[in-house]
Amino acid sequence: MEVEVKKSRLIAGTEIEGVVLKKLTEHRDQRGSFTEIFNHRWNLDLDAVQWSLVKSEANVYRGMHFHKRHDEYFCLIQGKCELGLKDMRSDSPTYLEWSQYELHGEDLAALIFPRGLLHGWYFPVPSVHAQSVSESYVDYGKDDNWGVVWNDPDIGVPWTFDDPIVSLRAGDFPDLDSFKKAIAPF
């Protein structure tokens, strides 16, 4: 009996300038598998200075976060994830466009995206992901650790859930209009 592998892919919205979905190759044998999840030779626009392993319970939403100074790398290792992006870079050809990705642990892929994008991820099942940023968490300042409430309709991402578990901080994020006024100009 053949098992259908769900593919990690863009499922809605626009391909945003500077975002890369990198398919990863899992090499399997009788011992298990080996997968290269990052290589400097891939010529990604990412100067990774911190790597983190993140575990999320079912029905957890992380985001919508925004950073002016650092780029990010996201690789779902186990589980399932909906990942939403919105381009807030006023000089970008995809300014204010949004995209939504669906990632699956059984079809390994990494999503690499530049600074200036609102980003958030939802885990409908317990999941594990690797994440890298180009600025260490201890160096994040309040001037670069912004957010927008995840369900603001002006973001545009058609999330498939309506009552996720969010952090206290994310529960207090402003709407998109208030956020745009706070960061202007960007």
Automatic annotation (TrEMBL):
Its EC number is 5.1.3.13. InterPro entries: RmlC-like, RmlC-like_jellyroll, RmlC_Cupin_sf. It comes from the Bacteria. It catalyses: dTDP-4-dehydro-6-deoxy-alpha-D-glucose = dTDP-4-dehydro-beta-L-rhamnose. It is an enzyme of class 5 (isomerase). Catalyzes the epimerization of the C3' and C5'positions of dTDP-6-deoxy-D-xylo-4-hexulose, forming dTDP-6-deoxy-L-lyxo-4-hexulose. PANTHER family: DTDP-6-DEOXY-D-GLUCOSE-3,5 EPIMERASE, THYMIDINE DIPHOSPHO-4-KETO-RHAMNOSE 3,5-EPIMERASE. This is dTDP-4-dehydrorhamnose 3,5-epimerase. It comes from Algoriphagus sediminis.
